[in-house]
Amino acid sequence: ETSELQVQFKLKYLNSQLTCSLCNGYFREAHTIPECMHTFCKICIFRHFVINKVTGPVTCPTCGISLGPYISCGSKLVFDRNLQSVVDKLFPFFCDEEKKAEDKFWIEHELKMKRSHDVNDSANKDVKRRKEGHELIFHLIPIATSGVETLLPTLQKPCLRVPLSFKVSTVQKFIYKRLEESVQSTMKEQHQDIEILYNDAVMDPTGTLSSLPENISESSVPIYLNYRRKKID
């Protein structure tokens, strides 16, 4: 016989992690910018771009990091399924209210509901997207296979949960940002000076994590990626 452990806590301690800085409300369709790890409601971040009538490269509203041109900024935002599931579990009534509001909208505007095969098609496409965006847990471990001068500090939080569509260069940026924040780091190089390795082989920084073995997507255990300072010949 097993018993479930119940944990009680005050939501005020989590509010800062569950609210969007643009609307000050709880996340709805939380989307994260991988380069800086800042998160916003999907509608809030795109509304921010539209309202500000961005003509050049769009930037993160929090830290100002560039996301490239507006036309392609959507590819720089990743749906944060884990964070959104936390919000939905803590506030299940939000989903119920949204469903009621949607039904009311269809009725008030005398619009036809989506046909069943349209819904099925959307569901099939969603399943495909989830499969392609299947998130895996990566452990980032420093290594010095080319001499001690290539060894970098250990990350305080070495776990990274991302889909295989994640760029290797973004993993480099993630590690660099974490090392830069570390008081123990004496890092003087740029993120391009960090090499990412899998099974002792250096990964192409212009590629994505999908270059890893195909069966890796079926893994339910953490996958180890190594990183080191690029050796200068």
General description of the model:
The protein has helices at 15-18, 42-51, 81-90, 92-108, 116-132, 168-181; strands at 30-33, 38-41, 57-59, 66-69, 78-79, 135-142, 159-163, 194-198, 201-202, 223-229. The protein is an alpha+beta fold and 233 residues long. It is globular.
Strand content: 15-25%
The amount of helix comes to 25-40%
Q: Helix/strand-derived class?
A: alpha+beta
Instruction: Please tell me what the overall shape is.
Output: globular
Rg result: 21 Å
Which strand order does the major sheet show? 7-6-10-8-9
H-E order: HEEHEEEHHHEEHEEE
Mean pLDDT across all residues, rounded? Answer: 77
* E-strand count: 10
Biggest pleated-sheet summary: 5 strands, mixed
Distance between the termini: 62 Å
How many helices in DSSP terms?
6
Regarding quaternary structure, how should these chains be classified? Answer: single chain
Low-confidence stretches: 115-120, 126-132
Features:
233 residues; alpha+beta; five-stranded mixed beta sheet; three-stranded antiparallel beta sheet
Compact summary:
31% of the residues lie in helices and 19% in strands. The protein is built from six helices and ten strands; from the N terminus they run H-E-E-H-E-E-E-H-H-H-E-E-H-E-E-E. The protein has helices spanning 15-18, 42-51, 81-90, 92-108, 116-132, 168-181; strands spanning 30-33, 38-41, 57-59, 66-69, 78-79, 135-142, 159-163, 194-198, 201-202, 223-229.
Secondary-structure blueprint:
Blueprint: H1 15-18, E1 30-33, E2 38-41, H2 42-51, E3 57-59, E4 66-69, E5 78-79, H3 81-90, H4 92-108, H5 116-132, E6 135-142, E7 159-163, H6 168-181, E8 194-198, E9 201-202, E10 223-229
Parallel strand pairs: 6-10
Antiparallel strand pairs: 1-2, 1-5, 3-4, 6-7, 8-9, 8-10
Helix pairs in contact: 3-4
